[in-house]
Amino acid sequence: MDVDEDDIEKANPPSYDRSEDLASLLYLNESSVMHCLRQRYGGNLIHSYAGTNMVVINPLSTPSMYSEKVMHMFKGCRREDSAPHIYSVAQTAYRNLLTTRQDQSIVLLGKSGSGKTTNCQHLVQYLVSIAGSTGKLFSAEKWQAVYTILEAFGNSSTAMNSNASRFSHVVSLDFDQTGQVASASIQTMLLEKLRVSKRPEAESTFNVFYYMLAGADSSLRTELHFNHLAENSAFGIHPHAKPEDKQRLAQQFTKLQAAMKVLSISGEEQKALWLILGAIYHLGAAGATKDGDEAGRRQFARHEWAQKAAYLLGCTLEELSSSIFKHQTKGLQHATSFRGGPDEAGQGDGSGPKVSALECLEAMATGLYSELFTLLISLINRALKSSQHSLCSILIVDTPGFQNPRLAQQHRGATFEELCQNYTQERLQTLFHERTFVQELERYKEENIELALDDIESSASLSVAAVDQASTQALVRTLARTDEARGLLWLMEEEAVQPGGSEATMLERLFSYYGSAQGVNKGANLLLRGAKPHLFLLGHSYGTDWVEYDTQGWLSHAKHNPAAQNAASLLQDSQKKNISGLFLGRATGATVLSGSIAGLEGSSQLALRRATSMRKTFTTGVAAVKKKSLCIQVKLQVDALIDMVRRSKVHFVHCLLPKAEAVTGGDLRVTHGDSPDSGLMTLDLGLLRAQLRGSKLLDALRIYRQGYPDHMVFSEFRRRFDVLAPHLSKKHGRHYIVTDEKRAVGELMESLELEKSTFHMGLSRVFFRAGILSRLEEQRDVQTRRNISMFQATCRGYLARQAFKKRKIQDLAIRCIQKNIKKNRGVKGWPWWKLFTTVRPLIEVQLTEEQIRGKDEEIQQLKQRVEKVEKERNELRLNSDRLESRITELSSELADERNTGESASQLLETETSERLRLEKDMKDLQARFDSMKKQMESMEMEVMEARLIRASELNGDLDDDDTGGEWRLKYERAIREIEFTKKRLQQESEDKLEVEQQNKRQLERRISDLQAENDESQRNIQQLKKKTQRLTSELQDTKLHLEGQQSRNHDLEKKQRKFDSELSGAQEEAQREKTLREKLAREKDTLAGEVFGLRQQLQDKDLEVCAVNLKLDQLDAELQDLNSQESKDEASLAKVKKQIRDMEAKVKDQEEELDEQAGTIQMLEQAKLRLEMEMERLRQTHAKEIENKDDEVEEIRQSCSKKLKQMEVQLEEEHDEKQKVLKDRRELESKLLSAQDQVRGGDVETEKRLRKDLKRTKALLADAQIMLDHIKNNAPSKREIAQLKNQLEESEFTCAAAVKARKSMEVEIEDLHVQMEDISKTKQALEEQLSRLQREKNDLQSRMEEDQEDLNELMKKHKAAVSQSAQNLAQISDLQAQLEDALKEKQDIQEKLQAVQSQLDFQEQSMVEKSLVSRQEAKIRELESKLEFERTQVKRLETLVARLKENLEKLTEERDQRSSSENREKELNKRLHRQMRDIKEEMGELAKKESEASRKKHELEMDIESLEAANQSLQADLKLAFKRIGDLQAAIEDEMESDDNEDLINSQGDSDTDSEVEDRVDGVKSWLSKSKGSAKNFSDDGSLKSYSPTGRIRYFYDRSDEEEEGE
């Protein structure tokens, strides 16, 4: 078989075939990774490490590798010490949680059927079993019950998996300070609730329906009306027909009921669940009419089944029917027209979108099941919650995997629900890319670490953006379709509310935003058109998994159906108490977030924090406006999940699918799993390769190998690994303060002797290659174990010495007791002693009674104090708990208020931007209007001139007909010329058009040729890039291999140096042993001499004993003689008795001395034998060690020489290969540059030519546009111009009035904004002060706790010191008694010495041997030395007592200081409490001020509205007044004219009437002048200044009427 050279990759040695870590492969490439996984899978090793990640291939059978015994094998192990397993991931997360006190997350990625849910169960089971819980609250049985219920209600059978999860969930395990599980909860999202009523072919609904239909007993069947099942169902829910399936499902139902009992779900609650499920089944059996009845009403198709459903739900049939079918059109119209208003909703098709009865029925079923599932999650969390305090948590994320119907050989398009699940997996894959690549590279850049990683691709953001990209004006509510790119979810929402929106327009817009120009190149774009108009292809996982989606009916997912919303109210209003009680209780709590995320209940602090973060995702920014949208809820739920995971340390587990056909049925798993040897044959290599490429595991492994995956901060690293360099701590001292951490870490690295290529010093932290930090941790553990062993040995030695001292004291006490007993026997019969013993207890009884009463009083006082302190402590604890809960509530409320404020501010900003844009458009329109007005005036002038010219021409035609004939001829000739030029120009344009078309065809052919050449060059470039990537990866592998060899050489050199030092130490030890042996030989000789001397002394003593025995015999004989002789007197008898006693005492003393000397001789002989044996053993072991070390040195030297030769050869070969690779790379780069220059040159020429053609066509189009404008512009009539002028004047007048009113309103609003900003600033300052005080309070509490602990320790030390001082005082008293005894013994010894001296004189006189005298002198000296030792001991104890007294005084001073500091802390805590109370009062006042400001604002708005209404009324009154003024002026003028006539006729009239008329005329004129001035003011200042003139008008009218009545 011929294979292209570029497709060949380097293979690893056979020893790497089953490597546990893929990052440890010698040559890292795709083929080697797949070969390793294939070999491991064939050996039933389904787990593999991939750097910091885990790879799990789903086994075809369930292996026995998840037992409890295997769990305990991983307990407490580090990741480096354990084999790859899913338990290893859990143990790593748990170990990190305990050491760092940081939240951990485990995210499972992979296709559907790859085993994610199973691994999630194993993770939870391991953590609960290993960590444990207080009182065994969370057992493995309880979690098994939880997953049994979740599988029943949330899983179903699909084409990819026989038991697929149809929802996403997060398992949260909260741990306390001791590392035990304190509480737990489950949050669910993205439930595929539509599967209840509608699903793809060959797939089933949720498992619980089949369990219930097969396993319900007779009583439950009767209650649920399951005795007669329906033949047809609108939802497609039918029981299984096979007996074995029925038996299996019945067993599952029994198991489900048992699981509910384990979770304390009562029988009534279970009954409520079965009733709702039965109602859903009966609704499907009832069905619905297709197009309504003859009257057009929507109703059930079979009312008897609907009656059963209504009975089970606890409502009437009419209520159920009205909840499903009535008010649908109105609700849907409202849902579609909430942006555009009622006028826009009325346009289009007429009465709004038509919804069928079946869709309404399906919406009710999905709503009922959604409420049921949410209730079930609440019941599960109720069984898992706990009130214990938790510190940090571990989150386990399990989501449905990638779905692709083509992978399961299904010829259909994917549904919208499958798009949502694939989108969730894409977002999690994006998170993996961000954590693995983006953050690592940014960290390297921040720390100035250069790392060449050019082949790392960007994230899969294009496929994600095609689904969820939002526009910048997402907050602006408009129905206009803009050209800004947005994702599919946003397009669905927009098209759902558009009057003429459809799936086709949605797809066209999507392709216009993200589609490619050609539509055939998958590598260039991730969105392609399908074979049919309603299909499209989306490339998931970096284009490795292309899924075809069918968009028919997708817009229905974006429309609100009131039937689904009525389901909750229907359940809450149910007549059945068990149903309504459950759902009414749940409605009061916030367990569901916007109808999307369930399981947010929980009273622990961590649960509240998780719920707050999720609510923040739904209440900030765009989410505050869009959270009710059904499509946008998908994005918001995934955002909340990603945000919750991003806050923790993430561990990724990649689950791989071995073969697509292996999961289509349950039987194939068993058959394939029987023989592990067939594992190699069950792997689909193409599928495995696509999953590896889609997950970017090779890139992650490459950055893990080439980079520095492990890093620590300088200070943390120094504190942790300072134990490996004890000489540095000795050099600097224990209390040395480090000023430069980087320098200290550098010194530590030098002392550790690490290879420089294995670590890198950044700006703030030290980075390590893979495996270096684990090696240092192992060395640290070894050193720590050694230190602990030494510490234990020291402690045991100290305890042994203390026990020996105690034994000595006990021996002394026993002797003292014996002596006292002997003395007591001597004075036992003495009368005074009897009197003393009878009187003494009576005195002591009186004293002890008084002491007991005093002690009892002290005990009562102490008990009262303890009770008081305990009471205060409980009160303080309750107050602190209450304050903490209040603070958490206030913080959550504050966060919600901030979120709403932010959303409101964003809305305000968008509204202001929209207003500014409209104002700008208005100004543009005004300018255009002005220009149009000028054009109209000029056109009017032209029209007038044309009319005048025409009129003059007509006059000229009437005057002269001859001239008219000439003009007519000229006119006809001009017309003929114009027609001829038109034909000529038309012919020329046609010719030019043909030429342009030919040029266009040539250009198109040339463009296609260039496109083909460009594609060819792109393919060549891609091939060259692949080749360069392969070469660079091989080069990096060789570099890593070289670094490994260098590190190995470095380790060998370290071992050589260590061996040399050990050899020198062994030589020194041998020399030391030699000198010790000589010393022991000398000591042996001296001991032999001493033994010989002692033996001589023993013989002498034996002779002395014999002599003494002879003397005794003689004395006995003499005594008998003396007894027989009665003539001797009593004086001689007493003398003889005294001599006998003295001789007996001497004999006893000599016997004791002989016994002591025999014991010492025996001990010396035993020591001699022991020393000889020890010397012999040491000599043998030393000889063996020297021989072994010589052999090891020789072997190491030979192996080092061989390895050095091999490495030299390898280095030469690698150097040659490197030169070849560099040469090939330079050649490829030159070829690539030349190809790019050719392509660029051709592109420049074609671009120039196309630009020329574009300019020419633009010029032609501009001429044509000018001609069309000239033809279309006809002169309007004067009437229209006048109307336009009037409209313009009216609009200017109203605009000026509106602008002035707006300015005044803006000024008031600005004032209000300033007030609101001041209030918010003060509120923020107070919040900051409150948070600062809270932090200070926490710090003070922690300090108080630390001080309390220190005080307790000091009290313990004080008590220990007091007890020790009491013991020391007792020892001192005992020693004083011993000293007195010693003094008495000294006196006795002196007396004995005098007696012995006299005896010595006597013996010298009697010629006794001098050896006895020397022995007595030695004994005297020994007694004197004992006396001196006792004196020194007494002095030492006196100094010890003084030192203990000083320590006791220091401890009392420290205790007083601690108590004073504790009092100060309490006072400070009280002051902080007062400040917090004041701040809360200030916050309350600020809230009141804020409400007052809002109320004032509302009042001002009402005042403005009332003023505007008054303004309008005043304007109307003013117009009426002006009209009446005009009438009055006319009447006055008529009256004046009549008066003048009367004056001419009657000159001698009444002077009073003349004067009265003149006064009236003057008054009217003055009033008219004033009214004109006021009218002028009104026209200038607006509407508010017209109040006084109108008042004057009314007053004038009233007065004139009164005068008329008087007349």
Secondary structure blueprint with pairings:
Layout: H1 30-42, E1 47-50, E2 53-57, H2 68-74, H3 86-100, E3 104-110, H4 116-131, H5 140-154, E4 155-156, E5 164-165, E6 168-175, E7 181-189, H6 207-215, H7 218-224, H8 243-262, H9 267-286, H10 303-313, H11 317-325, H12 328-336, H13 342-346, H14 357-384, E8 392-398, H15 416-446, H16 461-468, H17 488-497, H18 503-514, E9 527-529, E10 535-540, E11 545-550, H19 562-572, H20 577-588, E12 592-593, E13 597-598, H21 605-619, H22 623-626, H23 630-646, E14 649-656, H24 667-673, H25 685-695, H26 697-706, E15 710-713, H27 714-721, H28 726-732, H29 741-752, E16 759-761, E17 765-768, H30 772-827, H31 831-959, H32 961-1124, H33 1130-1272, H34 1278-1405, H35 1410-1545, H36 1551-1581, H37 1587-1606
Q: What can you see in these coordinates?
A:
There is one protein chain. It is elongated and about 210 Å long. The chain has 1607 residues and is mainly alpha-helical. The longest helix is centred in the middle third of the chain and has 164 residues, at 961-1124. A hairpin with a 2-residue loop joins strand 1 (47-50) and strand 2 (53-57). The protein is built from 37 helices and 17 strands.
Throw out a few tags for this protein.
1607 residues, mainly alpha, 7-stranded mixed sheet, 3-stranded antiparallel sheet, 37 helices, 73% helix, elongated, disordered C terminus
